[in-house]
């Protein structure tokens, strides 16, 4: 049976280099302390990976397991120390000011120093965070245990990895093979990270086991609150130390304020971390309110009307003017079965505390944004507008956890080149041939894919450098999207399309339609019920969407975000050269385009997915072919610069395809 870890050799080489430079030569910080203190979990991981590629399976299993257990103990100990140090500095808070944060952090460090070496308390690299975030240690472990003929452990590791990577086809095949191996029982297929992801497990079971829905949704809400607290506890150790001798008194105050705001921002971002399913890019929008909705329905169906009222009032703390919740609450007050005590029931204390604390933190963070140039991305959709200072509200409506607008992605000359490419090639690009738009009879529609542009360049119909530029722009956008949305999974191109919409002269009078009606990119929006159904024919695999604008010499054609009712506009973006709109592809971002009433509007639309089987296969094949041709031309010409570019492109593409 052939089992694969599908790991990039270039990345492994990086691990080894990092290990030798920063670990084995690192001022005595690398080894397990003689005092019995635990070493860094990333050190164990480097050693495990090194042993893996030396086929030293016993050592690989030992160090990989150590890395997992040490990381788990680090998180648990940090939470324990956080709880023990909650009151540190409180007795002197009036004298310490913002120094109480540093006092509390020092208390936590001292507490953790009883169990961990100084090196173990240092932050790990983003690469290590990515490895553990995608559960890649279990990818190595399943092969390691297979080689050691410990099939039950191999099956458990494979299952744990697959839970976070359900589109990993090789692991799916491996699991089927493990099931056929004699001696491997069903109980071997257990998720070893189940306890850390209990709020997801409960959610899934709540959907599937109708007889226990009420119990499961209660567990789900409680686990989400618990995981949020666990996450927030980790933020104290991330606080940086205020310099002992700041340049000026003003510098000290600014540094102290920045320290306080950084701590609050870290705690706020736990909303995103807790609501992001393992292996996914985007968080589930309104995760906790969504759970409360399910709990409310389960309580109503089970006849627990007092609990239903309590949950409904909790939900109204997030959205006080939600018409459905208010209607349901009014219905309960008119129901005979709901007694006076139930009607007077308030929201859950835990939710009330959660909301109150979040609002206090957001006020301080937005004050920092408005007055101290602090950077903060609000993870919540329910944040009341009156929390945000007037000077920030327009930006707040656009830039956040689920959407962003970036300017200067392209220069004017690059926009002009792509516009010229569109003028020459879009009409013969992908079948529209300048026909009327599929969305409105008042415009004509032209499109060009990257593949078609490269084919036309090969045929000599367009400039090859312009076609290559279109391809390179896509790579630039991918890097920006990956960076801004902090993807923990590999992003693949799903589809790229250069689109031009042109107003048809004489067909604009009295026009009231849209150039592109309100829609969602990965589900079917139903405005009447405000639901979005993630099913065919929607492109359900899309995770991130982007639109890069090329011009502004037209009338109309503004991009806008809307509410799920498809009527209420929540934010508007006016196109211009080099402006990029990026957003998550799910139901939090319904969007459309206003009518183009004069001129021609061109933009590059891109969609990305984390599911490898849905990547743009045509683009990948074309890239591989293009690399081979570039290498051949470079060898013939003997130009060293061309060789270096070809090698660099090959390395980057190889890493993406391998991962």
Write the layout of secondary structure elements.
Blueprint: H1 9-24, H2 41-53, H3 57-84, H4 93-96, H5 99-112, H6 126-133, H7 136-147, H8 151-164, H9 169-179, H10 198-208, H11 213-234, H12 249-268, H13 270-274, H14 287-302, H15 305-318, H16 323-333, H17 340-343, H18 349-372, H19 393-398, E1 403-406, H20 412-425, E2 443-448, H21 450-458, H22 464-484, E3 492-503, E4 516-519, E5 524-526, E6 531-533, E7 544-549, E8 554-556, E9 559-562, E10 569-573, E11 580-584, E12 591-593, E13 596-609, H23 617-637, H24 640-658
Antiparallel strand pairs: 1-11, 2-3, 3-13, 4-12, 5-6, 7-11, 7-13, 8-13, 9-10, 9-12
Helix pairs in contact: 1-2, 2-3, 3-5, 3-7, 7-8, 8-9, 10-11, 11-14, 12-18, 14-15, 15-16, 20-22, 21-22, 23-24
Transmembrane segments: 12-30
Biased composition (Basic and acidic residues): 620-630, 641-659
Domain Fe2OG dioxygenase: 486-610
């Amino acid at each position: 049976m052939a089992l694969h870890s599908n790991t990039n050799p270039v990345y492994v080489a990086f691990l080894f280099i990092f290990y030798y430079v920063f670990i084995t030569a690192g001022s005595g910080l690398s080894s397990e302390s003689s005092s019995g203190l635990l070493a860094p979990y990333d050190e164990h991981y480097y050693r495990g990976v090194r042993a893996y590629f030396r086929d030293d399976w016993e050592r690989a299993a030992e160090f990989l397991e150590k890395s997992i257990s040490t990381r788990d103990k680090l998180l648990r100990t940090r939470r324990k120390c956080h709880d023990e140090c909650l009151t540190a500095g409180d007795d002197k808070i009036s004298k310490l000011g913002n120094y109480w944060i540093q006092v509390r952090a020092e208390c936590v460090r001292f507490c953790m120093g009883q169990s961990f070496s100084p090196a173990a308390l240092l932050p790990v690299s983003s690469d290590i965070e990515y490895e553990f975030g995608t559960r890649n240690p279990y990818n190595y472990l399943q092969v390691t245990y297979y080689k050691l003929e410990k099939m039950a452990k191999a099956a458990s590791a494979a299952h744990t990895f697959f839970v976070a990577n359900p589109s990993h086809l090789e692991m799916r095949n491996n699991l089927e093979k493990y099931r056929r191996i004699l001696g491997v029982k069903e109980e071997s297929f257990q998720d070893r990270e189940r306890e850390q992801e209990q709020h997801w497990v409960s959610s899934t079971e709540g959907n599937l086991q109708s007889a226990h829905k009420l119990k499961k949704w209660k567990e789900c809400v409680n686990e989400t609150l618990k995981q949020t607290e666990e996450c927030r506890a980790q933020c104290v150790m991330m606080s940086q130390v205020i310099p002992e001798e700041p340049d000026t008194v003003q510098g000290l105050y600014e540094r102290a304020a920045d320290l306080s705001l950084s701590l609050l921002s870290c705690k706020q971002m736990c909303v995103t971390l807790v609501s992001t399913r393992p292996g996914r890019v985007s968080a589930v929008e309104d995760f906790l309110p969504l759970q409360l909705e399910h709990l409310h329905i389960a309580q109503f169906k089970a006849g627990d009307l007092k609990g239903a009222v309590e949950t409904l009032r909790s939900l109204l703390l997030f959205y006080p003017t939600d018409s459905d919740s208010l209607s349901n609450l009014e219905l309960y007050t008119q129901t005979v079965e709901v007694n006076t005590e139930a009607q007077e029931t308030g929201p859950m204390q835990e939710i009330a505390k959660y909301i109150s604390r979040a609002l206090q933190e957001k006020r301080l963070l937005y004050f920092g944004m408005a007055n101290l140039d602090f950077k903060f991305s609000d993870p919540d959709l329910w944040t009341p507008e009156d929390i945000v200072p007037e000077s920030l509200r327009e930006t707040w409506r656009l830039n956040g956890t689920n959407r962003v607008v970036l300017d200067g992605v392209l220069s004017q000359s690059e926009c002009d080149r792509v516009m010229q490419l569109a003028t020459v090639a879009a009409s013969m690009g992908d079948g529209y041939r300048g026909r009327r738009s599929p969305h409105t009879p008042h415009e004509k529609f032209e499109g060009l894919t990257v593949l078609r542009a490269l084919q036309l360049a090969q045929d000599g119909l367009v400039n090859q450098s312009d076609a290559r530029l279109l391809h390179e722009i896509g790579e630039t956008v991918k890097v920006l999207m990956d960076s801004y949305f902090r993807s923990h999974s590999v992003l693949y191109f799903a589809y790229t399309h250069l689109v031009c919409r042109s107003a048809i002269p004489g067909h604009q009078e009295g026009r009231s339609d849209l150039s592109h009606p309100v829609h969602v990119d990965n589900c079917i929006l139903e405005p009447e019920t405000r639901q979005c159904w993630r099913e065919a024919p929607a492109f359900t695999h899309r995770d991130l969407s982007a639109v890069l604008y090329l011009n502004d010499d037209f009338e109309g054609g503004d991009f806008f975000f809307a509410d799920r009712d498809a009527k209420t506009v929540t934010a508007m973006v006016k196109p211009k050269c080099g402006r990029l709109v990026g957003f998550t592809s799910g139901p939090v971002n319904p969007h459309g385009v206003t009518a183009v009433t004069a001129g021609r509007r061109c933009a590059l639309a891109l969609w990305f997915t984390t599911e490898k089987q849905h990547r743009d296969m045509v683009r990948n094949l074309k890239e591989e072919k293009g690399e081979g041709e570039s290498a051949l031309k470079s060898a013939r010409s003997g130009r060293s610069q061309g060789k270096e570019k070809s090698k660099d492109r090959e390395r980057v593409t190889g890493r993406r395809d391998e991962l």
